């Protein structure tokens, strides 16, 4: 998707492709910039990537190199004519400036090594190191040494793919199917007057559907909630009312204002909700609270008696598991109808709208990348007043907050962009990543990402910064949020909301480390020795990691 989106963007601006492979480094009080471009001329401008403000005067050059006086965190390179590329300014190969937060780029390595030097590191501070393996290979090796500081406590056991139980890959089944469905031409809108049954895939087995008789239990202005007739005995009194009211009062206005309204393939202007036990009490080691039927948006309605013609209900529909299966997994009915189901509808409605607007109304080369799509849906829960906004949150990894660091690896055991269904490294990682920037840029950011070009290109365009810089800022917030002098923090105070709801970023002592593709790792020294200090990172990879070095308090809060 990224290549196609870049190509289309270049056509839209009426010129050549935007510049590529922008590399910028600080050297001798100036910034040296190089890039690749087919344009005859380029405009080069230093920029503050945090504020989006230009720094100094731009220069126009013929060729693909420039030197600009001053310092900055980023650089804009505009092809003339053509699009813009945004680059990170690395701290260079001269040891950096000793500042409290510095980022070194892969091109700052020399002969496989990079150093950051500090003229003095006092006993009240220590050094934190973040490795960001953007675009690097899975399993990339690096080695870190820190001089001029006391030894950190012994590092916990390294994450290994085989450690711990396998995490359920439930939504991944739906997202994988979505990729194939995105290429199909959507069926035309079909007005449906009444519904007495639905096709349901038992336990996410999309090769076999059941025809299930249903009863319309409650209708609101924007939703029709149906119950599986086999489950009607589970519902007593006004048990559905909290769900219906939460949907109308919180979910529908928040999600549609952020992500747009329904494409309305069945012409009724409503979201359909079916609550059924057929999703299963236990599935792949977990349980599925709900999902949206992507085939229902694309394929014509299956009217066959046994749902043998594709299983589509041809509607905007979300399927929820029933309260009996919820009870089997430790959920009380009041919690399900009052918070869990509404939050799930917010989550799934974003997925539905994302797919419908991206691939339902126009041809597309595929759905949104899974990690971005899931990040948007996690923040959609927040926008509707759930997720991080309720006590304890609805974060999948809440049960892991108290696990000792040596017992499991969290964010650094997973890739941000390679989706593996891990409740910490993937769901919490993607959630905290996008929440950091949503709090900073405003609540319209998720909608701008969802309506953009898609993929990393669309994400970077909405953020205004390259993904490796965004990952570096996110990792810094995971490590030091709200600490004195921390340049990047989650909203709230004293590590809140991050460390009351999400797993902290585990750190280790300096030494060898294995990195995931688009993954991060964190190291921390002991207190400084009141003398010069040096951090050295060695890597033999073709693409070394970005390296962030921070000066932090020697007395961080307990994790």
Q: Topology of this protein?
A:
Elements: H1 2-12, E1 20-27, E2 30-36, E3 41-48, E4 53-62, E5 65-69, E6 74-80, E7 84-90, E8 101-104, E9 113-121, E10 125-132, E11 140-147, H2 170-181, E12 197-201, E13 209-219, E14 223-228, H3 241-259, E15 271-276, E16 290-292, H4 295-298, E17 317-321, H5 323-328, H6 333-360, H7 370-383, H8 423-441, H9 445-450, H10 455-463, H11 467-480, H12 498-501, E18 512-515, E19 520-524, E20 531-538, E21 546-553
Parallel strand pairs: 1-7, 14-15, 15-17
Antiparallel strand pairs: 1-2, 2-5, 3-4, 3-6, 6-7, 8-21, 9-20, 10-19, 10-21, 11-18, 11-20, 12-13, 13-14, 16-17
What does this structure look like?
By secondary structure, this protein is α+β, with helices and mostly antiparallel strands. The protein has 4 domains: 1-90, Immunoglobulins (Immunoglobulin-like); 96-152 and 509-559, Jelly Rolls, CATH 2.60.120; 168-367, no CATH class; 370-506, no CATH class. Helix content is 26%, strand content 25%. The protein contains 12 helices and 21 strands. The strands form 4 sheets. It has a 7-stranded mixed β-sheet, with no helix packed on it. Helix 1 (2-12) crosses helix 10 and helix 6 packs across helix 7. The longest helix has 28 residues, at 333-360. It starts with a helix and ends in a 6-residue tail after the last strand. Residues 1-16 and 157-168 have low confidence and may be disordered.
